From TrEMBL:
Keywords, in A-Z order: Molybdenum cofactor biosynthesis
Originating species: Ectothiorhodospira marina
Family: Belongs to the MoaB/Mog family.
Start and end residues of each MoaB/Mog domain: 13-157
Keyword Nucleotide-binding in record: no
Annotated GO CC locations: cytosol
Keyword Acyltransferase (UniProt): no
Pathway(s) this gene product operates in, as recorded in its UniProt entry: Cofactor biosynthesis; molybdopterin biosynthesis
Protein name: Molybdenum cofactor biosynthesis protein B
Entry-linked Gene3D superfamilies: MoaB/Mog-like domain (3.40.980.10)
Amino acid sequence: MPDSPEFIPLNIAVLTVSDSRTLKEDTSGQALVDGLTAAGHQGVDRQLVADDIYRIRAVVSTWIADPRVNVILTTGGTGVTGRDGTPEAILPLLDKQIEGFGELFRAISYEEIQTSALQSRAVAGVANGTYLFCLPGSSGACRTAWEKLIQAQLDRRTRPCNLAMLMPRLRE
């Protein structure tokens, strides 16, 4: 591997899970699109679905099966109320869970929102060679996750290691 790898833009899909927002009102999904675009990645699709595990799975499964999609970011549905079901929708689809993501996200969030961070059930993993990150529905949480965790891990130049450099080996 060269000492200074080149940046390789990834194709990223964004899904907002909400019963109350429209795409026009979706500041969290927009924050993710703005972040990934500013970092040089390509937004390949953006959708909004209701808090329903089967609707979430339908969209995410389609993206997992699409070889053009490298990464899926979801926002919303990671809390503890009755309608919050994004982790339940996503976890059965994963080949491998990345436990450290949720742990680290909550630790970073604690510095910003104190004990409220424990309410997040943010998760991440890999399915069919595609990375998935399930984030809370607040735009602040989405910016925190993107800026402090995900962006660097999707950049091959991040040292000592990153998730992007592992992509060719995900389907071994």
